[in-house]
Amino acid sequence: MNSGVPNTVANKRKQQFQKACKEHGLRLTPQKSTIFEALAETNTHPTAQELYTAIQKHFPTLSFATVYKNLTLFTKKGLVQELDFGEGFKRYDAHLNEHHHIYHTSTKTVEDVILPNNTHIPLPAELSHIPLKKIHITYVV
User: Fold this and answer.
1) 10-19, 34-43, 94-103, 116-125: which has the minimum mean pLDDT?
2) For the sheet containing 138-140, what is the strand order?
3) Model pLDDT for residues 71-117, shown as the tens digit of each residue
4) How far is CA 84 from CA 52, 92, 103, 110, 114, in A?
5) What is the 3-state secondary structure (H, E, C) of 66-97?
6) Which CATH architecture is the domain 7-93 placed in?
7) Which one of 4, 36, 50, 141 counts the least CB within 10 Å of its CB?
8) Neighbours of 13 (CB within 10 A)
9) Spatial distance between the Cα atoms of 112 and 101, rounded to a whole number of angstroms
10) How buried is 106 (Cβ within 10 angstroms: 0-12 exposed, 13-18 middle, 19+ buried)?
């Protein structure tokens, strides 16, 4: 899997993951570590199948069911982001800092979009009375 993530960033993500696992009472198994590391080292926003294929080369005994089950667990615990671009499957992202995405329909690729901290995102009037937890913008081109 094409990395694109500097080692310092991947290592920071791994440390945050290990800390979060302890906080959530999750046992840090070799399977969990391997799955998260593969995700933390890429910016490609892979699917469960793509992660499984990449991991199989180094961990042939790991099943697709284990990869999928752990990605679902990581998502529920807030350790990764699950993304849905209407492709019929989910993509995953270990980059948890505030950011948005651009989805390229022609190449089926996803990129991170980092907006400046002071960017004002206007809300429709219908949402003004609802306490939002997060705003995520997806640009589709």
Assistant:
1) 116-125
2) 109-113, 100-104, 138-140
3) 999 999 999 999 999 899 999 999 888 889 999 999 999 988 988 87
4) 18, 9, 10, 11, 19
5) HHHHHHHHHHHCCCCEEECCCCCCCEEECCCC
6) Orthogonal Bundle (1.10)
7) 141
8) 22
9) 5
10) exposed
Range(s) for CATH 1.10.10.10 in the chain? 7-93
Amino acid identity for residue 74 in this structure:
F
What are the residues whose beta carbons fall under 8 Å from the beta carbon of 141, sequence distance 6 or more? 102, 103, 104, 105, 106
Global pTM? 0.84
- Write the DSSP assignment of 11-26 as a string of letters: HHHHHHHHHHHHHTT-
Q: Are 110 and 86 in contact (CB under 8 A)?
A: no
Residue with tokens 């995102």: 121
pLDDT of 1 > 80? The answer is no
